[in-house]
Amino acid sequence: MRRAGAIALVALATQLASCGRSLTDSECNALLDRYVEKLVGSDRPGTTAAELVELQKKAREKASKDPSFADCRSAVSRKKFECAMKAETVDRMEICLL
Predict the structure, then answer these.
(1) pLDDT tens digit sequence for 3-16
(2) pTM surpassing 0.70?
(3) By C-alpha distance, which of 29, 68, 33, 30 is closest to 49?
(4) What is the largest CA-CA distance in the chain?
């Protein structure tokens, strides 16, 4: 029984450590892409996949020049990121990121 308890403790410690981990640049970009996807889905329902990819590309280009987007890694917690990435609507994403 002791071994099972130790394994559970290690698993919990690993989970807690990953919660505090800063986002990576690719995670920030994935968050932006998802936001654009949900925004376009609500504002322009007839948008094709190719148009969506182009809009995401343009959003990443703009974001790369925006100093506030550079703060994404430290400003967005892992919990907020995970919530936003699971959100079904742009409004829910925004609530997660508050």
Answers:
(1) 444 343 333 333 44
(2) yes
(3) 33
(4) 58
